[in-house]
Amino acid sequence: MGLSASQARLLTITARKSDCEYESMRLSHQKIALSRDMEKVSAEYDNAMNQTKLVYDYYGTGSEQMPLNYGLLMAPSQLNNYTPMPVTDSSGRIVLDDRLAKAARDAGIPQEGLDGLPSSDLRNAFIDSLAGTGYISQVQADNIKKTTYNQAAGVGDANLVNVNTTTGTLQDLIEMVSSSYYDFSDLANGLSTEQGGFSLDIYEGNTNLGTGGKISLGDLLNGNYSIKGNFDHLKSGDPYYSWAVTDCVATSSFWEDMFTQFEDLLDTGDPYTQAALAYARSMTMDIVECLSDITDSGGLDHSNFAFFKRCGQSFMESMWASGNSSKEIGKQLNRADVDGHIGIVYIQNASSPGDDEYNDAYGLNLSNMVKAYLTYFAQYMEGIDTSSYKVDDNDNYKSGRSEDGRTVADSNLIDDMFMFTMVTDVDTSGDNLLIAAFWDALFNQICAKGWVENVNVKDDRYLQESFKNGNMYISTLSDDGFYYQGNYATNTFIKEVTDEEGIAQAEARYAREKAKINNKENILDMKMKNLDTEISSLSTEYDTIKSVIQKNIEKSFKRYNA
After folding, report:
1. Alpha-helical runs (H) found in 215-348
2. Where does the pLDDT of residue 500 fall: very low under 50, low under 70, confident under 90, or very high at 90 and above?
């Protein structure tokens, strides 16, 4: 090979060798980068081994099949017991997705919230917007708007169940309680006949109905019903068995049945109304329970009215009949003004004072007692000190100026001038009332606390991570009727568990990424090995060509020096 050709070949080898060395270095850098990628994948895998998720365990069964999501907290369902658990930010504002945020804007709720209480019109606008975006159906929206808006739900009232109400007079109330009957036929159960005879009957006016049978509260309010009992006593030293009659009537289940019927009808959930019902119950029981206290196995001094004055019961002064039979006593009781009294009416009878054979009679006007209960309710609702309604307070009686007790004449009992607010029957299919209650409570929170829009909350992983890192919180309804913000860990339905599925996915991802990196490393190793082989070959050829050139130069110098 000529000198020029050898030199050209040497330059080519040198250039190629430099290219190979550069490529080998570049591949080495890629391999280092792959090592860094492998470290990152390994670190992610290690972190994934401790991966957790938030689950919603409403039934407390330890189930991990229900990952926590926005809908479980912010949409009504049996799973949240139709009680919202608002998602809030660090400022306490309610975090809304795009459609809930639109409903808040459409209803005119500022993001900082309202200063005062929202109106039913504002609530209905909120519901209409939810229907417009398809968040709820139009049928559901219509059902919600039919229910009475609960302005206190979640802001002082822990009972979120909405009720439908209507207003009406006493006659309207009577119509609503005319379909439920109380059976008076067992009223005399437990009375003893050891000492003389007795009778205990229901009267409508002066008409003896016997045991009375089934009578409704509507009948009692529209009519004039009384309980009347007669007793024969064989001698003055025996107990006065008429007190057993009073005890039987006082402990009758009728009173609780009456209270329950009226409370079911009049309890709208309003605390003031509930207090009025409690007051009416208490005042009525002050009369009723006192009857049972009269029982005295040792007998009572029937000439002493002090007990009756203390209890404030109606008491008609002893009336002496010409005979001593129960029949005569019944006549005396019928002639007595039972209809004019509220509470017990008692008549003692003997053929003459001091005789050993005694008879007495007992009466209680049921119609007056039911009216008295409603009067107490109306009185409380209007203000005890300012209401025109009253049940005779017995001031004259208690002071000893009168022994007539509570009288209808000195009372102003309930009439059609008072307007009752009554709970009406509603269609509860599809849990309409519970759904309405949910939206009322959430709507009230949005109005009271303000709101912020975040479209990402619908992503389960984003929501859960926001809870875990403290960017978001959950508000929970307390027993005092208010919502309080807290960490997700304070919610009894939310649990943090090992994310087995996430770990399995991480393992699969790790294996996949590791395989990719290994494959790339193998390719790089093969390329680098080939380059090393080529560089070695080029180096050998380079040395050979360089030796040839060196010999040619030496040979040339020897020729010309000779």
Report:
1. 217-222, 242-250, 254-266, 271-293, 306-311, 326-335
2. low
pLDDT score at 198: 60
Q: Cα separation of 291 and 293, whole Å?
A: 5
d(CA 395, CA 401): 9
**How big is the CA angle at 491 (ends 485 and 496), to the nearest 5 degrees?**
120
Amino acid at 93: R
354 has which bridge partners? Answer: none
- CA distances 503 to 27, 48, 509, 534, Å, are 34, 6, 10, 46
Amino acid at 529: K
How high is the pLDDT of residue 397? Answer: 42
Determine contact, residues 439/447, Cβ cutoff 8 Å: no
**Which residues does 542 contact at the CB level (< 8 Å), separation at least 6?**
10, 13, 14, 17
Rounded to 10 degrees, what is the CA torsion of 504, 509, 512, 516?
-160
Q: How would you write 131-171 as a 3-class SS string?
A: HHCCCCCHHHHHHHHHCCCCCCECECECCCCCCEEEEECHH
| Beta pairing class for 358-365 and 225-233 | antiparallel
Query: Taking the C-alpha atoms of 456, 458, 461 and 466 in order, what is their torsion angle to the nearest 10 degrees?
Result: 60
Which of 23, 45, 50, 7 lies closest to 499 in space, CA to CA? 50
pLDDT tens, position by position, 288-333: 766 544 434 333 444 433 333 333 334 433 333 444 444 444 445 5
Residue 470: both structure tokens together: 């403290």
